[in-house]
Amino acid sequence: MRSVFLGLFRFSVPCLLLGLLCFALSLTPSLIPRGPLVQGILGGVVTAVGYLIGKAIGLLWWAADMPVLKGKAALGGKLLFSAAVVAALVWTMTYSLEWQNELRGKMGMEAADAQHILQIVGAATLTFFAAYILGALVAALFRWVRSKFYHIMPARRANVLGVITVVLVLFVVSRDEIFDRLVMSLDESYEAAQMLFEVAPALPPKATQAGSAASLVDWATMGQPGRDFVLNGPDARAISAFSGKPALDPIRVYVGRANGETPTERAELALAELKRLGAFDRKVLVVTSPTGTGWMDPGSHDPVEYMHDGDIATVSVQYSFLQSPLALILETRTGLDQASALLNVVHEYWKTLPRDDRPRLYVHGLSLGAWSSMYATNIFRLVNDPIDGAFWAGPPFPSQFWYSIQNMREPGSPWVLPTIEDGSVVRYASHFADASRARAPWGNLRIVFLQYSSDPIVFYDPFSVWRAPPWMNDPPAEDVSKHLVFIPFVTQFQLALDMALAFGAPAGHGHSYFAEDYIAPWAEVTAPEGWTSEDTQRLQEHCNLGVKLGCRN
Fold first, then answer.
1. Which residue has the higher pLDDT, 247 or 548?
2. What is the mean pLDDT of residues 466-492?
3. What is 166-197 written as a DSSP string?
4. Among the residues of 366-486, which ranges form H helices?
5. Does residue 330 register a pLDDT over 70?
6. Cα–Cα distance between 258 and 263 in angstroms, integer?
7. Is it the case that residue 215 has pLDDT exceeding 90?
8. How far is C-alpha 203 from the chain's CA centre?
9. Are the CB atoms for 289 and 339 separated by under 8 Å?
């Protein structure tokens, strides 16, 4: 047992040097600016992983009975490697503040404090030693299990079975004791949030609103995201005040996750409510998929209602109570199934209506909602009697539809803002482009992707462990650091951390999409009657009055 505990303190200096090299490289910039605490945690993690890789290489080298340098050759090699690591540390620590402030400047953020490097080193040190102790405990567990096997079997067999046993123990513990408890905690917290349905605000006063006394959708079980969506959009008065023309109250239909047992049941309820409210008599009908929690971005939906003088209906169905990253991991199929059910039900009914007496039909989604909406928009929605268009913002990198379109880009066009053929069917928008320019005018079907060049949710690449993502081979975009370079293994960790930070980026960058950048793409997709570029600018100014919270009453 004494040898087991002594194993906790077997420290390898060469492995630490490899870890410090990884730490130095982690200081290079990526897509999202990093504060000192976050950078320190990232540095500590990659240091620990680098240390572990060094241990693994040493073990394989020993197992393969490879030659080992001795004497002066070994000393010279250690000194040379140490000098290279120190040089890398000095270089990256010297320029890390400059790199971060360059990126922060591109996003309109205040410069970081010059003292940040001390905070980074402190956080990295604590993170590394926490990871080291955890790894040492796992190694000690292996040695203890192996020592027990030594009494009943040969050494080689004991080594193999020891590894298998420890892996199984860690898997069961992490799955049953950690992962399951985490999921249960999340479920309970969101279930508690749903209890707030019992104290929901008063019913909408108008019979023409979803959730009212006349509605088919129960207000109490609609959920907070749905109630916010139904209550807070612009009405006819606000729209008319902006346009100077007569306007209608937009129709908004929202069905909560608790309003039905199955995706089809909820979709059928949404269709029935659309019929009740006369949504198919409007000029425009938008079928949208919300984010994981069911949130509907007002910065997207309010502007398009202004554009069409309120002669528009929007319908959405909630599929989860979890935040989008958790919904993506824990409820992958839920959003896809719900979006498919809703679009199928609405599209099938819409097709039965006379072509000259039905609304123009569009699909929309943001983030995880964009992924599920794209999944629902299969070939049957795009041929024969197709929808009129689609507008997807912040499409997550796993989206196959998006990825296949990306790979159709014209040679020489950037990955973050590609040109697809002549632009008559598919165009791209960003914080710096509005999808208005193309070699050919729009055809009958209009599709626009809004994606920020600094959005890691869109541009994360799981293969960046060993190769650069496609966008790294292009010149840097306007809000991407010119110092960003691909580093095997390190870039993967940087982009993974960027995804976690992307939601907190300044508006117009990362995964923080806002009203101003939705407006021009909505105009391109839905072609409002008589709409001009001056109208777009005027609506952008109007929407920005509310501290960029979207167009409110």
1. 247
2. 92
3. HHHHHHHIIIIIIIHHHHHHHHHHHHHHHGGG
4. 368-376, 379-382, 400-406, 456-459
5. no
6. 11
7. yes
8. 34
9. yes
Intra-chain end-to-end CA distance of the chain, in Å: 71
SS3 content of the chain, % helix, strand, coil (to 5): 55, 10, 35
Q: Is 2 helix (H, G, I), strand (E, B) or coil?
A: helix
546 vs 461, more confident: 461
From the list 429, 425, 430, the residue with the least C-alpha distance to 446 is: 425
At 3, is the pLDDT very low, low, confident or very high (cuts 50, 70, 90)?
A: very low
Mean pLDDT along residues 522-551: 81
User: Distance between CA atoms of 135 and 42, rounded to whole angstroms?
Assistant: 17
State the number of CA atoms in the 13 A half-sphere of 281 facing the CB.
5
DSSP string, 123-161: HHHHHHHHHHHHHHHHHHHHHHHHHHHTTTS-HHHHHHH
Residues 331-344 have pLDDT tens digits of 667 888 999 999 99
| Residues 359 and 313: beta-carbon distance below 8 Å | yes
State phi, psi for 437 to the nearest 5 degrees. -105, 135
Nearest 5°: the CA angle 373, 378, 380 is 130
Burial of 30 (0-12, 13-18, 19+ CB in 10 A): buried
- Statement: residue 324 has pLDDT above 70: no
| Model confidence, pTM | 0.86
Residue 304, C-beta contacts closer than 8 angstroms, at least 6 positions apart: 284, 286, 312, 518, 522, 526
Cα 406 to Cα 349: distance, rounded to the nearest angstrom: 32
Cα 155 to the chain's mean position, in Å? 48
Model pLDDT, residue 374: 94
Closest CA to 497 of 110, 122, 130, 46: 46
Beta bridge mates, 41: none
Distance CA 22, CA 492 (A): 12
Span of 129-133, 169-173, 482-486 with lowest mean pLDDT: 169-173
Q: List, for residues 138-167, the tens digit of each pLDDT value.
A: 888 888 888 877 878 777 777 777 778 777
Q: pLDDT averaged over the chain?
A: 86
Identity of residue 145: V
500: CB partners within 8 A, 6+ apart: 325
Can you give the pLDDT at residue 181? 60
Q: Which residues contact 40 (CB under 8 A, 6 or more apart)?
A: 119, 120, 121, 122, 123, 124, 126, 127
Rounded Cα–Cα distance for residues 18 and 81 (Å): 9
Could you tell me the fold of the domain covering 206-452+513-546?
Rossmann fold (3.40.50)
Integer Cα distance of 322 and 178 in angstroms:
18
Domain segments of the chain as ranges: 2-153, 154-199, 206-452+513-546
pLDDT of 176 reads: 54
